[in-house]
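Box 3.1. Reading complex inputs
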Amino acid sequence: MGRSPCCDKVGLKKGPWTPEEDQKLLAYIEEHGHGCWRALPSKAGLQRCGKSCRLRWTNYLRPDIKRGKFSLQEEQTIIQLHALLGNRWSAIATHLPKRTDNEIKNYWNTHLKKRLTKLGIDPITHKHKNDTLLSSDGQSKTVANLSHMAQWESARLEAEARLVRESKLRSHSLQNQLGSSTFASSSSASTSVLIINSHKQDPSSSASPRLDVFKAWNNGGWLKSNEVSNGVGDLESPTSTLSFCETAPPIMATTSGGGGGILGENTMPMIEFVACSGSSVKEEGDQEWKGYESSTNLTEYKDGIMENSMTTFTCGLHELTMSMEGATTWSGSHESLRTNDHAIAEQGFTNLLLNANSGDDRSLSEGGGDSNNRDDSSSGNGSGDDFCEDNKNYWNSILNLVTSSPSDSPMF
DNA sequence: AACATAGGCAACCGCGTGCGA
DNA sequence: ATCGCACGCGGTTGCCTATGT
């Protein structure tokens, strides 16, 4: 692969853009579109390289850019997504329409990271320093397992992007095949969105691949971490269950209508972690998980669980690909996952962070009803129980967030 | 008022990847 | 299969402004 000669640097201007340059670029793009960035500068009469023009446009001049202070909701979204995706700013930006990846990155580095650090939270792992005191086993496993979730989400985002590209290429031919129940898909990976879709196509299917995926998470992560915890209340001897609501439950009426933009709006499947007493995995009717369930010493199984979980996960993706072949078109009657905004609003761990920022003059009541319903934990000291509960909400909201589709993501 | 330091942000740099020739 | 181009992305730099001494 030849490395691209970025641009002919001789005679090209660098540094801050002048209003005149902005005007030229803006005027040209408004009239002609950006087209080929490389050719744009000469056509627009700019002494800049195409790359510089593209950056200026995407990060500053684009009309759909929202500038100014980040809202509380946006901050929460960034924190939650960063916990799951890491420094994948473009992926994070797809969930924050009107914000650029550069802006998000800067905001993270200059504001949010510091706040996390201030609270004793590692901004990289999002792990509280007290983890070792609280539950050196469970919490660390949770973090480790979440990294697997992040890997999956990374794959999902990439698969989504690929799928969109392919769907665009095939859009015309697919139009002609809408009546057909099957079409060949060359997509090597599928997405959570399509997991839903494929399942909806065949509601009778009891071996949905997506359940394997989520069960993998469940058994590999949440189930295990909660089982080793000795929390109180909801976390008392719980079996954490990742339930998947095929149809929108009544509670969905309380959720705001974010997300779901790209695929459809008829149904609103929702993912949520449910901490409940008693077993739940077997309720899913998946025999292969019973072995884990019957284990009385999970630590002996921990490696096996993780290994099997990821194996199942991999199979799940593979099966997804197969299932996709029976799915309808991307642009057709797709169902979508939706952001459970209510869950986000309820999450507490991030509120701790935001609350603890005494220098921040914004109150938690600000930001479109982002209420702090966990005022008893707002001290930020993070007692063990509070931390567990906060963490549950925290990751709960993360998962809901990432399984949603950005409403008007530039990615799509 | 002058200087030093820190914070914030726009822009640049270099790498990875997709795609067409 | 290979090569070169174009673009996207994440990390980093450097300038400007605010704040402190």
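In summary: Residues 19-56 of chain A form one domain.
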